[in-house]
Design brief:
The protein has about 450 residues and is of the alpha+beta class. It contains 18 helices and twelve strands. The chain has a five-stranded mixed β-sheet, sandwiched between helices. A three-stranded antiparallel β-sheet has the order 4-12-9. Strands 6-7 form a two-stranded antiparallel sheet.
Length: about 450
């Protein structure tokens, strides 16, 4: 058995970290192309390995998942924002929390939120004007944040959406900055970065603890927080306010940031591929009315079975631009992967964006082709060649919520508007904790009136 996987040349002390963080997407793709499916990396003093073969990924995320935990980097950085929520908690505590939270994400429960998603999208439509320009990411973030707060807290936060959004963005940016440095100062050190983080955390805590207190007093039912409040373990134990806060903040972040990013990329790709956009509009007009032969109506959860191409558009978008471009694990014991023996403590980097663009699994991988996700193609696809929500026991608990939300929002908005890029400048992705466009994307709105539908 080879002693160690192949490795690029690194720098003194920093190892591969500086070059890696300069452009994570390009570095991971280059490393996988150049050195193969298992590549050794050094992040300062930390040993890491990049794996990009589906069989190895299945081993780490599923068959030998008990040998790994979330990466120390993610736990240290996101712990400052999320506390000990599902995204980063471990061991028996994580198992207990996952079991308590799971009923809130039951299929029927998720479907009951479909009407809220469509209603809020319709309200958003009422604010759009033909010919107006929008900053796309901000629009999608505002919409998905309102939806997650309504479904999670039964709260209308339109007046506070910007305040919450600013706080979440500030904490994500601080976590991103910290990832560029292998040396982290304790939280009690009064640096400018820590003060900004504390101010943003205070804003989120004020809002979330307020919702928890209101729910305990009013006995609200029907939203996710009420289900978490009522959830009981085998011994009758319930979540403390601290646990409820941590899970709520985790769901607010994961429930709006990732979906908003996926929708942002979907609009960009549709604007760049008019043939796909035309096929999408044809399905929407057929299912929901074209405004000429039949009046337009809003989609419902029951329409999802017929909105097959719309769902394929979102899946292909997340193939090219997975909301979480990299998944991290840390080995709890020695392990073997790809024919190499690796020691306990190794950070395992699993890059969906690399696998999703591998020509072995997706011919012509850079081409935007939603038909890759037809029923026949999905049935024939190898496991862990497509995994935008992770996999195994730690697969995203809200993946069904996010998939349904993305399809319903895209269907509602695209049925009434085309979005056109306001600039021909290239739109570069930036991999931080999530995958966003590097610069704000400005788009112009074009209403799909009856006259325009007939022209097309």
């Amino acid at each position: 058995m080879p002693a160690s996987p192949p490795s690029p040349k690194g720098r003194f002390f920093w190892g591969h970290l500086k070059d890696y963080r300069a452009n994570v997407l390009e570095y991971e793709r280059w490393a996988a192309r150049t050195y193969g499916d298992v590549v050794r990396l050094n992040f300062g003093p930390r040993r890491a390995v990049l794996i990009s073969h589906p069989d190895d990924i299945h081993k780490v995320l599923v068959s030998e998942a008990h040998k790994f935990r979330k990466s120390v980097i993610y736990r240290a950085l996101l712990g400052r924002l999320l506390g000990n929520g599902l995204l980063i908690s471990e061991g028996e505590f994580w198992q207990r929390q996952r079991k308590l939270a799971q009923p809130a994400f039951h299929h029927k429960r998720i479907q009951s939120y479909g009407q809220v998603m469509v209603e809020y999208a319709a309200q958003h439509l009422a604010e759009w004007r033909d010919g107006a320009e929008i900053i796309l990411g901000q629009e999608m973030m505002r919409l998905t944040l309102r939806i997650v707060c309504k479904t999670l807290f039964n709260a209308e936060i339109a007046s506070q959406a910007d305040r919450v959004g600013v706080a979440v963005n500030a904490l994500l940016e601080l976590a991103d900055e910290a990832m560029d440095n292998p040396i982290w100062l304790p939280q009690w050190v009064p640096t400018a970065r820590h003060r900004r983080g504390q101010a943003a955390t205070t804003v989120l805590n004020e809002i979330v603890y307020g919702f928890i207190a209101e729910h305990r007093q009013s006995g609200d039912v029907g939203d996710l927080l009420s289900m978490l409040l009522e959830a009981q373990g085998e011994n009758g134990e319930r979540m403390s306010d601290q646990q409820l806060r941590d899970e709520s903040v985790t769901l607010v972040l994961a429930g709006h940031e990732t979906t908003a990013n996926a929708l942002t990329w979907a609009w960009v790709l549709l604007a760049q591929h008019p043939n796909v956009e035309a096929e999408l509009h044809a399905e929407l007009d057929r299912v929901l009315g074209d405004g000429v032969l039949r009046p337009k109506r809003l989609p419902t959860v029951e329409d999802l079975r017929q909105l097959e191409y719309t769902a394929m558009v979102m899946k292909e978008t997340m193939r090219l631009y997975p909301p979480a471009p990299t998944v991290g694990r840390e080995a709890l014991e020695d392990f073997e992967v790809g024919g190499y023996h690796l020691p306990k403590g190794t950070i395992v980097v699993v890059p969906p964006h690399v696998v999703h663009r591998d020509a072995r699994w997706f011919p012509n991988p850079e081409i935007f082709d939603p038909t890759r996700f037809s029923k026949a193609n999905e049935a024939a696809r190898r496991k862990f060649t497509y995994f935008p929500f992770g996999g195994g026991p730690r697969i995203c608990i809200g993946n069904a919520f996010a998939e349904m939300e993305a399809v319903l929002l895209l269907a509602t908005l695209a049925h009434h508007f085309r979005l056109r890029l306001a600039s021909a400048a290239p739109i570069a992705p930036e991999a931080r904790i999530t995958l966003r466009p590097r610069a704000p994307v400005v788009m112009s709105l074009e209403a799909r009136t009856a006259e325009r539908v007939m022209e097309n």
